[in-house]
Amino acid sequence: MPSQGPLGVIKFLGLVLFGGLIGVIAAFAAVGFVAAVLWLNDSLLISPRSRMMFAHPGILIAATIAVPAIGGLLVGLVHHQIAERRPHTPADVIAAVQTRRGQLPARAGALSALSGLLSLGAGASVGQYGPLVHMGATLGSLGARLLRLGRSDDNITIACGVAAAIATAFNAPLAGIVFAHEVVLRHYALRAFAPVAAAATIGYVIATGVLERGALFHVTDTTVPQPWEFAAFIAIGGLGALVAGSYMHAILGVGRLAERLPISPLLRPALAGALLGLTALWVPDILGMGQETLRFATIAGAFGGIELIVVLLLKLGATALCLGMGFGGGVFSPALVIGTLFGALCGTVLGKLTGTPPDTFVFYAVCGMVAVTAPVIGAPLTSLLIVFELTGSYVLTIAALASVTLASPIAAQLFGRSLFDIQLSIRGLDLSAGRGQAVLSEAPVRRYLNQDCVTLSPDTDIAAAVATLSHAGRGEAHLVDPQGRYHGSVSLADLEAAREDGHAERSIAKYTIANRPVLGPSTSIWEAMARMQDFTGEAMAVVDDKEQSTFLGVIYEASIARAYLKHSDELRREEHGSG
């Protein structure tokens, strides 16, 4: 970080302290959210423990269908109060940070958290980590607005809320820090690291001191796998990428199908809840987040091979149904369950084929877990750190690393960096070319509109036009009629050539440049740069987006270049800790 003197140090320390405060608030919010979900699951007969202890089979059957359906109806009503008619997710957090808008609306954030709470509480097959991430990010953004912080600091406080939420939910502070940098910020600026680390650390302390719950899965002392088994772990990674792709596209496919159904968006979650409940009468493991299913899947012999296939397919389908039809919730928890079931299936099949003892069964389950989860959330390092912090096993983490080695690159090439990036791409925000393109794609050319240009009436004769351009020192003119409508552009060179050919009294309208690109005021700098690659001339005309004819001004190539350098310099300064 460049030296900024004592004042810079004070500001930096203030940001660290504020990051810690955001961590406290986000951590307690996460604790309350998780506690409320668990209470609802027990009260509404969703959790395996409550279902097992309930003594009235008829009521249990009715509740299994009715609770998700009614929960879906409530979720639909909540979404009707959000402008986009959908819950906000980590994808919205990524978009806000990557485009440097940096502000997450508090009302939509609160309603999205309520949607996630109702969905999870009613047993929808969705995850808790997505709502927690968005809730933490919203609290960070709200804090930055209250203190009137700049865009860079706003992004950092958003990351602080995200890191605290992950650290609290997983009891994994390192994973929280890396997730905030790897998925949300997508850079490792020194200026951001300390506040994010403070928030994650506080989240972990609060989680261990206040939120007492079992580990995500239990791992006893494990033996070291045979060398050839690491080849199997790598293969699991390659196959896991395909499972992750199927999972992501199932969610997107159901979402597209839901848009074509002749059902009001208000009722879609209720329909999905009813279908989920009917299926859960047969296989109740698909209800809720599935943490008990995940724990059992890491134990050799807890599920048979056929059971693993059935639960795996139904869990994948149930999650796609719930999220695609409009339930609020995350994709992380179901991906953990699906990946663990997939890894357990691979371990079971390989054990039968090779006679491998069950001592290393948990390795296969965990490798499958990270092989599916890492591509879905686009965070291989975070996935590995979660394994390490939850198990404390270096050998198990190395085995997971072997799987991620193939899983993330293959999935990125075939499907995209993550489900979040795919969703943003569908919405028109492409992050595949990096943050620079994202920022330039959000910057409209209207900011650089210039009125310093030559405009002529289309019926102006060539001699008069040449004289006007020569006197103004310009090489081209833009034809605008008395009503302000744009009719094309002409170049001084073409007009002089026509005058030398004896056509000095002709109208210049006959000499407009063919296929001349025009821009709208909302056209992005990135798109303008793309159009200028094949453009020759001084400037491109800008016409009204609605009328497609009213002339507003021009954009000079030098203005586009300056805009590109300005935004690139801002990103560079931010990522090097001085912006």
Would you write up a description of this structure?
The chain is mainly α. The protein is 65% helix and 4% strand. The chain has helices at 5-43, 48-53, 57-79, 90-98, 106-121, 129-146, 151-170, 173-185, 190-210, 227-260, 268-280, 291-297, 305-324, 332-354, 361-377, 380-391, 394-414, 419-426, 435-442, 462-472, 492-500, 525-532, 557-575, and strands at 455-456, 476-480, 486-491, 518-519, 539-543, 551-556. Helix 20 links the parallel strand 1 (455-456) and strand 2 (476-480). Helix 1 (5-43) packs parallel to helix 9. It is elongated, with a radius of gyration of 29 Å. The model has no long low-confidence stretch (mean pLDDT 87).
Topology:
Layout: H1 5-43, H2 48-53, H3 57-79, H4 90-98, H5 106-121, H6 129-146, H7 151-170, H8 173-185, H9 190-210, H10 227-260, H11 268-280, H12 291-297, H13 305-324, H14 332-354, H15 361-377, H16 380-391, H17 394-414, H18 419-426, H19 435-442, E1 455-456, H20 462-472, E2 476-480, E3 486-491, H21 492-500, E4 518-519, H22 525-532, E5 539-543, E6 551-556, H23 557-575
Parallel strand pairs: 1-2, 4-5
Antiparallel strand pairs: 2-3, 5-6
Helix pairs in contact: 1-5, 1-6, 1-7, 1-9, 3-5, 3-11, 4-18, 5-6, 6-7, 7-8, 7-9, 8-9, 8-16, 10-13, 10-14, 10-15, 10-17, 12-14, 13-14, 14-15, 15-16, 15-17, 16-17, 19-23, 20-21, 22-23
